């Protein structure tokens, strides 16, 4: 289902009125439509199945070592306040039976689960679960670091504070050594 743009436009008009604005003044006339268009874009992940991004994979029987794509930028929307949280995701996995996915597909999975009203913890575990279920790798590790606008521009007002979440599956859960190796690669700065 597509977003109901008419309903969003009406709601935004109501909010503008409720805060004491005049939705008919020149600068605001197009705002409900702009926001409806924007919501269609930033919530487009709601009607996607992110695991479809991993439908295509390559076979390389030889490669059963860690693959890590780090510093994947993302923007998401906090489900509590509907304001942005954004940062970087680091996604690693150890392929099994030569099931390698395209590197960009890992970033596409991050994009897809970001474009919904989200919790950072859920975003992190959804990325790990999708890769784990679809590619059956030896293990998956996902680390997400983000700044939440609901903690900076309002409320507790702590600009610069970062929230770090992680989700590990398979071997990364069982073996501290593999986890430590992945974490050192994530932290490595060239
Ligand atoms: N666990 C988790 N909490 C989040 C996330 N995004 C926002 N929050 C928190 O959700 C909580 C909502 O708390 P409430 O007390 O219901 O709302 P509030 O009165 O606006 O809270 P304050 O932000 O403390 O002013 C806050 O503590 C937010 O920091 C997230 O991704 N994960
Ligand atoms: Zn929030």
UniProtKB/TrEMBL annotation:
Broad class of enzyme this protein falls into: hydrolase
Keyword Secreted: no
Annotated keywords: GTP-binding, Hydrolase, Metal-binding, Nucleotide-binding, One-carbon metabolism, Zinc
Domain GTP cyclohydrolase I: 8-186
Transcription in keyword set: no
InterPro entries in UniProt: GTP-CH-I_C/QueF (IPR043133), GTP-CH-I_N (IPR043134), GTP_CycHdrlase_I (IPR001474), GTP_CycHdrlase_I_CS (IPR018234), GTP_CycHdrlase_I_dom (IPR020602)
Listed EC numbers: 3.5.4.16
Pathway connected to this protein: Cofactor biosynthesis; 7,8-dihydroneopterin triphosphate biosynthesis; 7,8-dihydroneopterin triphosphate from GTP: step 1/1
GO biological process: one-carbon metabolic process; tetrahydrobiopterin biosynthetic process; tetrahydrofolate biosynthetic process
GO molecular-function terms, A-Z: GTP binding; GTP cyclohydrolase I activity; zinc ion binding
Annotated Zn(2+) binding sites: 78, 81, 150
Domain of life (superkingdom): Bacteria
GO cellular component: cytoplasm
Catalytic activity annotation: GTP + H2O = 7,8-dihydroneopterin 3'-triphosphate + formate + H(+)
Similarity comment text for this entry: Belongs to the GTP cyclohydrolase I family.
NCBIfam families reported in the protein's UniProt record: folE (TIGR00063), PRK09347.1-2 (NF006825), PRK09347.1-3 (NF006826)
Subunit structure, as described in the record: Homopolymer.
Protein's name in the database: GTP cyclohydrolase 1
Protein species of origin: Proteinivorax tanatarense
Gene: folE
């Amino acid at each position: 289902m597509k977003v109901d743009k008419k309903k969003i436009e009406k709601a935004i008009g109501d909010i503008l009125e409720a805060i004491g604005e005049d939705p008919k003044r020149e600068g605001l006339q197009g705002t409900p439509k702009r926001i409806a268009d924007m919501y269609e874009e930033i919530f487009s992940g709601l009607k996607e199945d992110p695991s479809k991004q991993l439908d295509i994979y390559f076979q390389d029987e030889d490669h059963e070592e860690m693959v890590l794509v780090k510093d994947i930028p993302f923007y998401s929307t906090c489900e509590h306040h509907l304001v942005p949280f954004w940062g970087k995701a680091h996604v690693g996995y150890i392929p099994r039976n030569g099931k390698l996915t395209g590197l960009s597909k890992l970033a596409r999975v991050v994009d897809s689960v970001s474009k919904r009203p989200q919790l950072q913890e859920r975003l992190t575990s959804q990325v790990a679960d999708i890769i784990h279920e679809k590619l059956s790798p030896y293990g998956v590790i996902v680390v997400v670091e983000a700044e939440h606008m609901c903690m900076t521009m309002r409320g507790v007002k702590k600009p610069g504070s970062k929230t770090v979440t992680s989700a590990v599956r398979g071997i990364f859960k069982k073996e501290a050594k593999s986890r430590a190796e992945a974490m050192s690669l994530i932290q490595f700065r060239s």
